[in-house]
Every structure is written in C-alpha cells, then in structure tokens.
Design the sequence.
C-alpha cells in the first residue's frame, strides 16, 4: 500500500510536463510512466534497499523471535502513509523518502527509550547523516543544474515553442514533443530504479520481521555461511579493541556465536540477528578515530563478506514492488501536476523548463540508484523547476515556495516523533 501511494504521490514529477504541454494525453502519459517505473524497479539493484533499512538498530532490524516486528511495521508504514497522504491532499510536492527515513529514525529512538539506552547506542548516526546529506545536497544540485541547463538551452536552441507556455489543447512541435516524452521516460525509469529499491527494502523488512525463520537468510546463503566463522575470528579482536560506541556487549556476544557457526546446525533467525549485530559493531569500529586505516579497511571487508548471507531480494519481491509502484503511478497525479505546472513560478511552466528539470533530475536519480544512496525524486524535480524559473527571470511564487518549504521542514520532525511514540507505546 505504501509503495502504491508512493507511486501516485511521485508520478507528477515525471508526467507534469508532458501532460501540461499536451505532448501526451493524461491516461497515455501515466500508463507510459507506470510502465517505465515498473522496468526501472526490475533493472535496479538492492543497495538502496538495505542502505535504508539499516537505519534501524540491529535488535529491531532482525530480532531472532520477531517480537518487535508488528510495532515496528505499524509505526513505519502508519507514519509514512499518514504524512504522504496529508501533503498529497493539499497538492504539496513532498518526499516519500523523507517520510520513510523519518519513521525509521523515530523507531530507532523509540527502541532507545524502550531499552533505556542513549540515542548513540540505538541510532546509527553515521548512516543517518550519510542519507540525510544526500537528501539535502541533491535538491541543490537539481536547482543549480536545471537552471544552468535551461540557460544553455536558451543560448543554443532557438525554437520559440520551447519557451512559451502551452496554448490551448494543441500539442507542441514534434521535436519539442519528442524531447518531453524522452525526459518523462528518463525520470520515470530512474524513479523506479531508486524508489523501487526502497519498496523492495520495506517489503523485505516486512516479510523477515513477520516470518524470520523462513526469510532470514538468502536462498543462496550456503556458500556464504561457510565464510561466517572465519570472518568472525578476524572480527573479534577488532570489535574487542575499537568498538567503543556502546554496541560492544551485543556485538561481542554475537561474534562469539558466529565463531562457532556450524553450517549444518544453523538457526536462520539467530544467525541473521548475530550477523547484523556484528555488522553494527564493525560500523562502530570503522567510525572510531582511533582505528588505524588498515583495520578500518578490514572491518569493511568483513562486513561485505557477511552481507550476502542476509541481504537479498527474491524475484517476486522485486515484481511486487514494481507492480505497486507502477499501478500507483497511474493514479492520483492531478493535484501535484497542477502545482508543478502553474504554482512553482510566477509564470506557467514552459517545455524548456520542464525538460531541463527532468533531464537533470533523471541523471541525479539514476546515479544515486546505482550508488546505494536514496534521494527524493520530488525534491529534485521541484527544485529543478524552481531553478529554471530563476534562470528564465520569472522568479518563484513566494506563497507556494513557503508552503513547500514548510512541508519539507516539518516532514522529518513530524515523522520522527510519530514513529518514536508509536513504536514505544506499542512495544511496552
């Protein structure tokens, strides 16, 4: 359901220009965008998926008995869905990624309250800052990149149709129309490759949380399990010496169990939990300033060797994420399209502005999808359109800018607070 809402919330980023300029009929545009989202999910990887869910502490991410799963899942999806629908109802472009990330951080904070730990012991701040930095920088790149591209387009491409708002129901010239369909395709595909991975990660989080014995380990884990004990032997002294981040007790206990791993007697849920505790301990080793560079490199290598045992996505999970995102893309686009086309700037969106924002956005989103970093399609495209409005000299609509800015500003505090309170109350 969340991935479906993600699709119809974010679809306007891809189809706004082709619909607004009458390059494609709305039904054709959203069906085409939905299909490209579908293909993008299937073509993408899973690095973003697990980069996102690892914001959760190890005992919530992979509990051996699955006890925290239901509170965690209700807190996560209830929070993210509520804020997504709230902003969509008012026609405000907002980030589904921010909603999920805020809810995940909130759950980690709720887990710290539950176990009376300091926040540093439950929240992986290194991963949080890495994700939030990407989310903060990408809209700036979209704003500047789209503004520069629009300025260059005005200098070198003299077709007047590109720089005029749509006139009536008449579609633009074939060249302009083809350019806009191309940019729509690029944004839709790249959105699928990045946001689809988030859906994959969230579905995996759900099925592993509810059925840990069945889905805890990769179906191809057997050759990797044989590497667990030797890697644990190497990890043990590193964690003993350099993990001073409060995770030492859990990580040391887990690494001791992993050293005695017998592939013939593995309990999948316990092995998964121990691997994630050790990975958390190795992260603490990596960020410890006292750790020598060679030991940091070793810690990273051990983590990379352990991950394939527990990080995977069956084909049907990929297909389910792609299907939900693609179908959602075909619904609910009108509110956000109207905002992007007419309310971001003081003048209506022109084909050149839409194409510039979408070309830059597609590049940024696709790049992030293959580097394991989640970005917000909504923020990049909205910032890109704003950049082209500045580049054209028309300026930005201050009322809408304030409304969007407030939604962006409050997303993380609201979702963090709601996620933390829900998880804490339901887990007591």
Sequence:
């Amino acid at each position: 359901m969340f991935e479906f809402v993600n699709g119809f919330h974010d679809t306007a980023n891809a189809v706004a220009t082709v619909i607004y300029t009458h390059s494609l009929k709305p039904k054709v545009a959203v069906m085409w965008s939905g299909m490209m989202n579908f293909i993008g999910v299937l073509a993408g990887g899973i690095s973003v998926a697990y980069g996102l869910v690892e914001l959760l502490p190890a005992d919530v991410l992979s509990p051996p008995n699955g006890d925290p799963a239901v509170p965690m899942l209700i807190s996560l999806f209830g929070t993210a869905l509520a804020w997504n629908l709230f902003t969509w109802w008012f026609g405000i472009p907002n980030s589904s990624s921010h909603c999920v990330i805020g809810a995940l951080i909130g759950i980690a904070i709720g887990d710290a309250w539950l176990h009376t730990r300091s926040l540093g012991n439950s929240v992986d701040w290194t991963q949080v800052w890495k994700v939030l930095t990407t989310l903060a920088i990408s809209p700036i790149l979209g704003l500047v990149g789209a503004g520069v591209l629009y300025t260059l387009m005005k200098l070198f491409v003299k077709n007047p149709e590109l720089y005029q708002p749509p006139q009536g129901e008449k579609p633009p010239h074939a060249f302009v129309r083809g350019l806009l369909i191309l940019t729509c395709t690029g944004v839709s595909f790249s959105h699928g490759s990045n946001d689809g991975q988030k859906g994959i990660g969230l579905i995996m989080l759900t099925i592993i949380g509810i059925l840990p014995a069945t889905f805890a380990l990769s179906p191809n884990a057997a050759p990797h399990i044989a590497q667990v004990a030797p890697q644990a032997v190497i990890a043990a002294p590193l964690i003993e010496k350099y993990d001073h981040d409060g995770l030492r007790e859990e990580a040391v206990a887990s690494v001791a169990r992993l050293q005695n791993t017998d592939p013939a007697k593995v309990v999948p849920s316990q092995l998964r939990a121990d691997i994630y505790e050790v990975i958390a301990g190795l992260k603490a080793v990596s960020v410890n300033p006292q750790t020598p560079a060679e030991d940091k490199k070793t810690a990273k290598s051990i983590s990379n060797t352990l991950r394939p045992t527990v990080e995977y996505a069956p084909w049907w999970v990929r297909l389910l994420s792609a299907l939900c995102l693609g179908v959602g893309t075909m619904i609910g686009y009108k509110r956000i399209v109207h905002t992007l086309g007419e309310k971001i700037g003081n003048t209506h969106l022109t084909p050149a502005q839409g194409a510039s924002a979408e070309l830059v956005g597609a590049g940024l989103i696709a790049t992030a999808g293959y580097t394991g970093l989640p970005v917000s399609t909504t923020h990049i495209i909205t910032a890109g359109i704003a950049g082209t409005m500045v580049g054209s000299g028309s300026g930005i609509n201050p009322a809408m800018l304030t409304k969007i800015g407030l939604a962006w500003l409050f997303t993380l505090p609201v979702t963090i607070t709601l996620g933390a309170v829900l998880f804490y109350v339901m887990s007591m």
